[in-house]
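Final report, Chapter 2: Outcomes

The project's central promise was a pipeline that accepts a single protein chain and returns its three-dimensional structure in a standardized token representation, suitable for archiving and comparison. That pipeline is now operational. To close this chapter, we reproduce one record exactly as it appears in the project archive, with the input sequence first and the structure output second.
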Amino acid sequence: MRKQYIWILLSVLSFCACKKLDQEPESTATRSAVFGTESGLRLYSNSFYGMDFLPKNSTSKDAMSDYLAVKSVNNFIRPGGFSSTSDTSWQWKDLRNINYFIENCNDPRVPAAIRNNYLGIARYYRAYFYMEKVKRFGDVPWIGKPLDVNDPKLVAGRDKRELVMDSVLADINFACANISATSDASRTTVTKYVAYAYKSRICLFEGTYRKYHTELNLSSSANTWLENAASAAKEVMDKGGYSLNTTGGAGVSYRQVFTSSAPVASEVLQSAVADVNLGVLNEANWWWTSGTYGEKASFTRTFINTYLNIDGTPYTNNPAYPTMLFKDEVKNRDLRLKQTIRSGDYKRISNGVQVPAPPVFSYTFTGYQPIKWTLDDMYYDAGALNINAIALFRYAEVLLNYAEAKAELGTLTNGDWATTVGALRSRAGITGGLSTKPTVADPYLVTNYFPGITDPTILEIRRERGIELSLEGFRFSDILRWKRGSLMNQEWNGFYVPALNTPMDLNEDGILDVAFYQGTQPAAVAGVTYVNVSPTIGSAVNSQRLKNTTFGELTWMNEIARQWDDKMYYYPIPQRDLQKNPALGQNPGWQ
């Protein structure tokens, strides 16, 4: 209703019906009603929260990433699968709404501090709008005012990244300085500390992007952005009053943040909250527990191997890890693992009764079936029924932003490590390596993820970021800024299968769960799901196989070519927009 009302007001603003020469035009009167009162400013600014450019309040934002196997290879990373005619994201209408507010929020009848608060919110969203555009396209036009139909800016070229990002920084700085609310009990609105958290996210992205994308010739300014990232995160850490959720202990406190119906106030800065009465619900269970609706998104074994042992040592230090069975590999690990995938004693609720819930191969390709966002009651599986709040900003990310920025600057201390990565690992039940920075680079991380990184602290922070923020929509952006797009070519692998036709008990409850076969299915055993891993089924290639044909890691869809090119660090300018304005020019490689 609020959005409908504000758009009605904006529509009225576009007309001027003058009855007499000495009568105030209706558009001016309407503008005065909106911008001349605090309630009008509040009403208008509420329209920003639902804008189209914002990432959707979804739990499936990492569907295109290096660590999830999904139903099909995204066209963006298939050779010849994506072009300038495929993209339709060159959208600017939300920017006009924001700029109109900024240009007109100057009525002296509203005290300056109140006006600046709402200007701060508007400029926060303009920074958000432009950050998303720069991440996607690189250079974009900077438009700082609402344009008329004949404005020459509409047919001008793109502005340089440096100008746009300096403008983004100015906007987010204004937001941090002028948004008055320092807390919000509902955890649904933009506050001063949400703005600081977002500033740390912006500046970490830009600082590391400039550092690792040396082709931009901007590496000399990278440290300035990293310093801004660290100082913004420190502002939240020192003054925001947030802390990591530890309710219930290390075995449950992490997942509580993602399954709670009310935002966990200690850790969550801002959240998309469900409301049954208003019919505002999400579809997490439906997406993650359906074999048809969602993507059957499943973690790869390469990524699962990065979870540390409970004592803080790398799991892959054990020479037996390549052939470790699922039931064993999930034991004595970082407790976030069992709060992120189905394993061990995980149970679901069916008609009020708890039942064992091992991985189900109707819903997973690899055996590593996510539960981070799903509610345990099966009632929520059959549609968009979820009532859990979706965290948009949380304290854990702020800690990681601070740690990474300081590590990239070379100024992270042991004390910094203890209050950031150490605190996150302690919450996860890990007992070792919590108070001092690592001194040895993990060869598994170097070989499989970051061959150009030798600093063990940076490696471990990247490990921690992948685990702590998994499935929260950060992974592809991180890959872009680290210049590790080639990770998108990694094979989609699953847990180790020692032999065909041998049912496996995945959760050690005495009930056999799954067996893999080729050719003719064996005689059925009650409760066992049979998965055909024949190289072909009939005349068709089978996408689910075993790496060594009759044993080894599960693999999925690795017969489909994936190809990362450096041009893919940016999306193409859509062809239809280039035809309207050739001065935009095309991104390199997409011509």
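Archive annotation: Residues 133 and 140 are 7 Å apart (CA to CA).
This record, like all others produced under the grant, will remain available to the consortium after the project formally closes.
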